[in-house]
Amino acid sequence: MVSPQPPTPTCQVPVVAVVDPEELYKTRPPAFGHEMRKLFGFNPGYVNLNNGANGSLPLPVRAAYDTLTTELEANTDLFRTFQLPHHMKRARERVAKLIGAATDECVFVNNTSLGVNTVLRNFSFDRGDVLIKFNVSYATVSNVVKYLGDIPPSPTVSTFNLLFPMTPEAIIQTFREHIRKVKEENNDLNQTRKFVAVIDSIVSHPGILLPWKEMVAICRDAGVYSLIDGAHSIGQELDINLSEARPDFWISSCHKWLYTKRGCAILYVPKRNQHIIKSPIPTSKLYLSHQDEGYEGPQDFVKLFASLDFREWIGGEHKINEYTHNLAIEGGKHLAKRFETSLLDPDGLMTPNMVNVELPMPWEIHDTEEVINLIRDTLLLKWNTFASYFRHNGKWWARCSVQIYNEISDFDVIADAFLDACAKVKELHTGRTR
To answer: For all residues of the chain together, what is the average pLDDT?
Structure first.
């Protein structure tokens, strides 16, 4: 007899007010904090401290997308032929200015994972080439590196280990030493081997800002390609300035922190490396073989967005991130006090808008599916809140992502939820070990 399945939780869909962005932007924006919630389509009472995972789409940005969709469906051929190129050009110009790059060095992809795959799968690897990943690399990024190492010609895979807490100086020193060892162990006297390092700008778990610009310089001096997984950077990291940092490749998800519609990411390929990117994934009808006359490197594939108008209206990049960073620091300290634990980054030097707080749960409890689901269900179904949680370097951690709609009281909600969830997990573990 088949056991009955529990009912699937349903999502209460809020009644969303119709928003006219053009008229809205003539008015004064709401204050940051809970007053800003009216510009997002959240369920009543839902406390969102997990923006870093999926982003949050403001209502005026959604309205702008709906308008574009209406225009597209009204006359698809007319829109794609005449209007799309204009929107594409405008979007690329604005995002290029934001990240300090030239417009023709930027294209749009669906997400960071696709961007990383696009870059790595366009390299022509040989046996003896080396791919460098981090132990804290995002799973899809780590897996594509491992996959490329598993298939012919099987480039060597090297893993750089980071165990937090660490200072930026320690990370730079150990990374420089790792690159030196990799180059020595894979002797390349004729300089014919390719070395590619996939570097996080902001690690996902834990949510820590790395000194990635200094790491790019180390790679450049050592003859190593630097591929920056900047999934959490745009909209959260200020003054990126890629023309000055000079990574070989850089990708960031616009739908996480920049308020764009999912999914949308920016792929930066400087002109010096555009010959490497021969095709998007999947290969489009615009592909030009190297045998075809007129090959000019990567092709444009774009997602339109209106989030920069919204961000300018509410105060701009620095005002947004001043609020979210300060609240992350304050909220993290408050949460650590409630948990009677510690912060991963007590000084806040490597904390952008995501703060990592130790959970009151012993390391001996493993992150089994049962444990993960018990925490998830307690947070979402009982307490109507969510933040990310994970194990790292001998401890359990919570990662709280702070946005302009959060206030310090939200940290009390997530504290109550995590304390309840941890108590349930410890009770389960105690029952299993008696």
So the answer is: 91
